[in-house]
Amino acid sequence: MNLTITDVRLTPILVADPPLLNTQGVHQPYTPRLIVEVVTADGITGVGETYGDAKYLELARPFAERLKGRQVSDLNGLFTVADQVAVDASRVENAVDVGGLRGVQTADKLRLSVLSGFEVACLDALGKALGLPVHALLGGKVRDAVEYSAYLFYKWAGHPEGVPAEKDDWGAALDPAGVVEQARRFTERYGFTSFKLKGGVFPPDEEIAAIKALAEAFPGHPLRLDPNGAWSVETSVKVARELGGVLEYLEDPALGTPAMAEVARRTGVPLATNMCVTTFAEIKEAFTRGAVQVVLSDHHYWGGLRNTQQLAAVCRTFGVGVSMHSNTHLGISLAAMTHVAATVPNLHHACDSHYPWQSEDVLTERLAFEGGRVAVSDAPGLGVELDHERLAALHQRWLDDDGTLRDRDDAAAMRVADPEWVTPAMPRW
Ligand code: GKR
Ligand code: MG
C-alpha cells in the first residue's frame, strides 16, 4: 500500500443559497466553498470541504503544494505544514469573519480552517485505503446515528427581483406564524425534533414571540435562539428571563466572553457559543468565568475532526457541554461532522446543520436525515462519492462570476434590496 500524496486538486465553487436573514444582512444567492481532493500513489482519492472565500484559497494553494510527497496518514504533519504557510497580515488585522459570525479572525484560525479541508480529505483517503470508515480512524463510533436540529431562519420568499438566483420552495418566514410554518416543513421533510432559530434580525420582542409560538406549536421540544451577539447584556438578561422556561439554551446572546459571563451570572439559562470560544486559547478565560455552558464546534475553524475530539475532551473535563453549529456547507462537511459527532461520548445536544437549505451538492447521492438523524456510514472513508459533473458545473459558476460573489458578504447582499443598509454596530439592541 502506498499512501504517498501524489496530487492535490482544489476546486472553488459557488453553491446556491436561499435569502436567509441574519444580523449582518442576508445570504448571497450563491456562496463560495472549496472542494479538496487528495490523490495517493495508489490512485485513491480522498475528499474534503471548507470555506471558499479568497483568503482561504490564497492559503490552500501553497498548502496543497507542500502536501505532495507526504503520507495521507501523517495527520499531525498537517499542523507543521500549516505553520509553514504564510498568512497575509492584511487578511487578519482587526478582521472578523463574515462580519463576526464566526468570531474574531486570526492567522491561526485561517490556517486551521484550511487545514480542516485537507485533514478530512486525508482521513477519507486513508479510510478508503484501509477499508475503514472515518469514525473508526477516530477511535470508533459510540452511536449509530447523529441527531441534528432544524435550523430555522427568518427568510424572504426569494432573492431580490432581478438578481440571478435559484428558486426555493420554503416560502417566506418573517413573523412567528412564518417561523412555525417553516418548522413544520422541517419536521415533515426531515423529522427534526429540536429547533434553532437564527435571531438578531428583528427587535428582541418579535423573536421572543417567535420562540413562544414554537414552544406552543411543539410543546416540550428543545428550542434555541441565536442572535449572533446582537444584544446588550441587559437585553440578553431580559430575553433569558422571558424565555427561561422554554429554551434548551441561548446561543451567543451577547458578544465576547465578559458580556457572556455577565449574562450567565444574572440568568439561569444555559449559554452556548460558536463566537466567543472559537479557539483553544479562548477556552481558559471563558470556562474559568463560567461564561458558557455549551461550546459549539465548527470542525472547520477548530482545525479538523481530531481537534474537535480534543475540544470535546476539554469540555468534558470542565463539565461544559459540547455540540456543533454550522455554516453554509455541503454533504462532504455533513459527512465529516457526522463521523466525528459519532465518536464524541459527551454529545448531549443535537448538532445544527445548514444542509437542508442547500438544494445543490457535489455528491452523487445526498446525505439523508431520517427522524432528524443522519446514519453514521460504515463504508470506507467518509462514505460519500464526488459527482465530477456537478463539481465542474458549480466551479464554472465560480469561474463565470465577476468576483462579487467569491467572498461571502451578507451586508453587500442586503444592500441590493436596501441601498442604505450598513452592518449594524453591536450590540444592535
Ligand atoms: O449562516 O447566517 C448564517 C449563520 O449565522 C452562520 O454564519 C453562523 O456562523 O450558523 C452560525 C451560528 O450558529 O452562529
Ligand atoms: Mg451560533
| Helicity level | 25-40%
Q: In percent terms, what proportion of residues is strand? A: 15-25%
What pattern of helices and strands is seen along the backbone? EEEEEHHHHEHEHEHEHEHEHEHEEHH
Major beta sheet summary = 9 strands, mixed
The hetero compounds bound to this protein are:
D-glucarate, magnesium ion
CATH architecture descriptor of the largest domain: Alpha-Beta Barrel
Specify the CATH class of the largest domain: Alpha Beta
CATH topology of the largest domain: TIM Barrel
Structural class, please? alpha/beta
Q: Name the overall outline.
A: globular
- Put simply, the count of helices is 13
Radius of gyration: 20 Å
Q: Descriptors for this entry?
A:
429 residues; alpha/beta; Enolase-like, domain 1; 9-stranded mixed beta sheet; 3-stranded antiparallel beta sheet; 13 helices; 36% helix; globular; binds D-glucarate; binds magnesium ion
Short note summarizing the structure:
By secondary structure, the protein is of the alpha/beta class. The protein has helices spanning 54-67, 77-84, 107-130, 134-137, 176-190, 204-217, 233-243, 257-266, 283-288, 305-318, 331-343, 388-400, 410-417, and strands spanning 5-16, 21-22, 25-26, 30-40, 45-51, 145-153, 195-198, 223-226, 249-251, 271-273, 294-297, 321-324, 351-352, 373-375.
Protein topology:
Blueprint: E1 5-16, E2 21-22, E3 25-26, E4 30-40, E5 45-51, H1 54-67, H2 77-84, H3 107-130, H4 134-137, E6 145-153, H5 176-190, E7 195-198, H6 204-217, E8 223-226, H7 233-243, E9 249-251, H8 257-266, E10 271-273, H9 283-288, E11 294-297, H10 305-318, E12 321-324, H11 331-343, E13 351-352, E14 373-375, H12 388-400, H13 410-417
Parallel strand pairs: 6-7, 6-13, 7-8, 8-9, 9-10, 10-11, 11-12
Antiparallel strand pairs: 1-4, 2-3, 4-5, 6-14
Helix pairs in contact: 1-3, 2-3, 5-6, 6-7, 7-8, 10-11
The structure holds D-glucarate and magnesium ion (MG).
D-glucarate binds next to loops.
